[in-house]
Design goal:
Layout: H1 17-81, H2 86-118, H3 125-143
Helix pairs in contact: 1-2
């Protein structure tokens, strides 16, 4: 036998250029598909974690905005009290007391959301409460109505630290 019979001897078959390109292209596609599946699973888990983190931070920020809004309302009403007569001031003090109650509720809601989100108490809560008490005491001293219709003497009041 001369080796030309395909059934008897094994000849190495050469692949053509087209076949080589097709095999290489198919291998790249399979690898990219596998990498895409792995990335999809990783991003899905990461996306869920990111969503919850952003949602938690947004809820805490929302409660901070509620506290700022309530504080602004209290401050504006406090400024208005200074321009009113004793009789008007007496009526508006009830509104201010409601505003203060809303501020306290907003701050408590903020503290609860902060603790639920971060697993610990807000570090500045004690300082914020102390500053608020100081501010509320100054407001009370400045705008409290006396029985004779005059306001409290604020001539000895200390200026604010930022003034």
């Amino acid at each position: 036998m001369d080796g030309t019979d395909a059934g008897i001897t094994l000849q190495r078959r050469r692949w053509g250029l087209r076949a080589r390109i097709l095999v290489g292209f198919t291998a790249v596609i399979v690898l990219l598909g596998g990498a895409g599946i792995v990335a999809s699973v990783a991003l899905r888990d990461s996306g869920a974690t990111s969503y919850h983190a952003v949602h938690d931070v947004a809820s805490v920020y929302s409660s901070v905005v509620d506290v700022q809004d309530a504080l602004t309302t209290v401050r504006v009403q406090g400024s208005r009290l200074g321009t009113m007569s004793a009789q008007e001031r007496g009526l508006r003090r009830r509104v201010q007391e409601q505003n203060i109650a809303l501020l306290d509720a907003a701050f408590m809601a903020f503290e609860e959301r902060f603790a639920a989100t971060y697993g610990r108490a807000f570090d500045g809560a004690a300082d914020a409460r102390a500053l608020w008490d100081e501010y509320a005491d100054a407001q009370e001293a400045a705008y409290a109505s006396r029985s004779d219709g005059t306001t409290a003497d604020v001539s000895q009041a200390q200026p604010c630290a930022d003034a």
